[in-house]
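Sharing a chain and its predicted structure for anyone who wants a worked example. Both blocks are below, sequence first, tokens second.
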Amino acid sequence: MTESAPEPAVQGSDEGTDEAVAPPLNVTALFAEAASKSGLMWVQPPGDRAWPFWHAWADDTVYVVSGPGEQSLPWLPDEVQLILRSKDTGGRLLTVQATVHGIGPDDEGWGAATDALRAGRLNAPDDVVDRWARECTVRGLHPFGAPVEGPGHYSTTSGAAPVPPSEATTATWRPWHWRGRPRRRRGNRLPDER
């Protein structure tokens, strides 16, 4: 008769209880799936609001381009937070820390970054990579560490932010139909109202 080794205890469980502990969440797989399915995420520099941006996901890196003719992003420090949304519900799915590094035309990763970005760019002209090299900033964002927020561990705040000021907002004049349809329209008079 051979003795078998005792089964290892499940991490986080007490030997005296019958409760099963859920297996740990594979954040890398969740992040990769969400980043590859969704073309939009938010970047939040420390002390600033969250900025939405379109991106390309390749080689475990989030690639982003900004500048003239592209999306507007602020200067990004060495570390930022990335906020991913669920493609199904549109709600916040995962928040992770990420390191930021610029990618220039002379860098080794330029070809891979611009190939991924060009494939994800809608209506990209033929010379878009040359324009990015001259006028725009291409960045790579590498997620790292444990998630700040994730399934089962979300912040209790709503995450809603005020609309940022812009020239496109209407502060004074409003269109005539802003308050809804008028109660009576032409041709809708009752017969005795002449």
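Comments welcome. The domain at 27-148 is CATH 2.30.110.10 (Pnp Oxidase; Chain A).
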